Amino acid sequence: MEPSENLIGLGTLPLGARLLFRSRSDWRTAVISRKTDDGVTLSVASPKGRNYRLRRDPELVVGITDGLHFLRSEANDLWTDNFASYDFRW
Predict the structure, then answer these.
(1) Confidence (pLDDT) at 17
(2) How far apart are CA 22 and CA 83, in angstroms?
(3) Does the structure show a pLDDT above 70 at 1?
(4) Which range marks the domain in which residue 32 is found?
(5) pLDDT tens-digit readout, 40-82
(6) 44, 49, 50, 65: which is deepest, by most CB within 10 A?
(7) What is the 3-state secondary structure of the chain?
(8) CA dist 13 to 3, 30, 32, 79, 82, Å?
(9) Count of domains in the chain?
(10) pTM of the predicted model, to two decimals?
(11) Is residue 88 a part of any domain in this protein?
(12) What residues does 72 pair with on adjacent strands?
């Protein structure tokens, strides 16, 4: 387990904060696009160039490693090993 100073709540991050999000198959970049009392809306980048939105609980644990914020996941892989490859044509 990581030290407690490297864990914060998702609701404490400001609008526009960038973080890494674990999808079903890989890690993707996400941005906090909206905050309400009910939840935090993330805008997640798809590898094919599109975006989709997810609503998450503001109490979710966000880990910090080397200055990068990421939503903690039950998956055993590291984001450096399974990061989404994006379409670089655009």
Answers:
(1) 94
(2) 9
(3) no
(4) 4-71
(5) 999 998 888 889 999 999 998 898 888 888 887 776 666 667 6
(6) 44
(7) CCCHHHEEEHHHCCCCCEEEEECCCCEEEEEEEEECCCCEEEEEECCCCCEEEEEECCCCEEEEECCEEEECCCCCCCCCCCECCCCCCC
(8) 19, 12, 8, 20, 24
(9) 1
(10) 0.77
(11) no
(12) none
Residue 89 inside a domain? The answer is no
With respect to residue 86, please indicate whether it lies within any of the assigned structural domains. Answer: no
Give the confidence band of 90 by pLDDT, cuts at 50, 70, 90: low
- Specify if 90 maps to a domain: no
61: closest CA among 4, 14, 16? 4
Token pair of 48, please?
């094919």
In whole angstroms, what is the distance from residue 18 CA to residue 3 CA? 21
Q: 10 Å Cβ neighbour count for 15? A: 11
Backbone angles phi, psi at 11, to 5 degrees: -70, -15
Type of residue at 49: G
Output the six-digit token pair for 50. 């599109």
